[in-house]
Amino acid sequence: MSNIFRELLKKVGSGSHTSESLTRAEAAAAMKMMLLGEATPAQIGAFLIAHRIKRPTGEELAGMLDAYEELGPKLQPINTNKKPVIVLGIPYDGRTRTAPINIITALLLASAGQPVIMHGGDRYPTKYGLPLIEIWQGLGVDWTTLSLGQTQQVFEQTGIGFVYTPQHFPLTQALWQYRDQLGKRPPLATMELIWCPYAGDAHIIAGFVHPPTETMFQVALGLRGTTKYTFVKGLEGSCDLPRDRTAIIGLSSSKTQELARLHLVPREYGFTTKNVPLGTTEELIKDMHSVMAGEPSELMQTALWNGGFYLWHSGICPDIQAGVDQARELFSSGVVAAKLQELIW
């Protein structure tokens, strides 16, 4: 197998003038050989850095996703009243500068009848930022203790699921040491943003930083037959809408292959142009509880801005302002806090 992998490595690692992109099948084979340890450590490290330098294509990302599809876990379909389940693609290496709001958004959406799946692991390179799993633990929800079957039960009962990759997809763990040693995100980090660990009808919402990533996303998902997706130029590459600038959002369209484009200006909806900085985890958890108690704060403004958009985008509210109003009501009435309590076991 290492001889087969060497040929794939030669294609992507031959330099700027002679390197070639992999086909979808080749990318899938390379991803499988790395996950299964059939490539040598030297080959894996060389491939990851060479592929980063070359830059991935949408076809290669599709192949990598094919390997994840074959080897990885999936939560099974649930009754959603014909709503696609939202799968949030958020960088695995966490946050270091701005306070994340996506877990509050997930609780809000589930409270309004929109199921949500998140996925991720522990503190990972290259940022080693605050990951989703630690925020959930701070809120009293420890996904790390659940088998995939138990997570499925929680998902069915509450409308929220979390695929914890160290437990549910342990094959990925061997690759994290390479990220640390290389000091750079490999293309795997881009692919993870559009991974869908759900076997039913899904709407993938992925954050991004660099505009060319949108094109890669769109090509990869198109090749895999995914038609429902949203790309958000969010805070630190997440799905969180910023308040300090116009939110740039790309939406899939059933009528054209081009992305529909939204430019949302926070101040037009009454929000100040200020992101909430990330302090200690303890401070963040306290502020999140304050939001779920309906108390005014800067983080509440971020929660309302994101909640308004996502409630509208999910088809729950007729427009963003109605979404903001409903988000405020769901927080102040204690409905979101009650959803969190459903998840505490």
Summarize the structure.
Residues 6-70 form the Glycosyl transferase family 3 N-terminal domain. This protein has 345 residues and is an alpha/beta fold. It has helices spanning 2-12, 24-35, 41-54, 58-71, 102-111, 132-138, 148-158, 165-168, 176-182, 188-192, 212-223, 281-292, 298-313, 320-332, 335-343; strands at residues 85-89, 116-120, 160-164, 202-207, 229-232, 247-251, 260-264.
Describe this structure in words.
The chain has 345 residues and is an alpha/beta fold. It folds into 2 domains: 70 residues, Transferase, Pyrimidine Nucleoside Phosphorylase, Chain A, domain 3 (Up-down Bundle), CATH 1.20.970; 259 residues, Pyrimidine Nucleoside Phosphorylase, Chain A, domain 2 (3-Layer(aba) Sandwich). The chain has 15 helices and 7 strands. Strands 3-2-1-4-5-6-7 form a 7-stranded mixed beta sheet, sandwiched between helices. Helix 5 packs across helix 13, helix 5 packs across helix 15 and helix 13 crosses helix 14. The longest helix is centred in the last third of the chain and has 16 residues.
CATH fold call of the largest domain: Pyrimidine Nucleoside Phosphorylase, Chain A, domain 2
Radius of gyration: 20 Å
**Count of alpha and pi helical runs:** 15
Mean pLDDT across the residues is: 96
Portion in beta strands: 5-15%
CATH architecture of the largest domain: 3-Layer(aba) Sandwich
| Major sheet description | 7 strands, mixed
Return the structural class: alpha/beta
Helix content: 40-55%
What would you call the shape? globular
Q: What is the CA-CA span between the terminal residues?
A: 45 Å
Query: Biggest sheet: strands side by side, in what order?
Result: 3-2-1-4-5-6-7
Low-confidence stretches: none
- Secondary structure tally: strands: 7
CATH class of the largest domain: Alpha Beta
CATH superfamily of the largest domain: Nucleoside phosphorylase/phosphoribosyltransferase catalytic domain
**How many distinct folded domains?**
2
Topology as H/E string?
A: HHHHEHEHHEHHHEHEEEHHHH
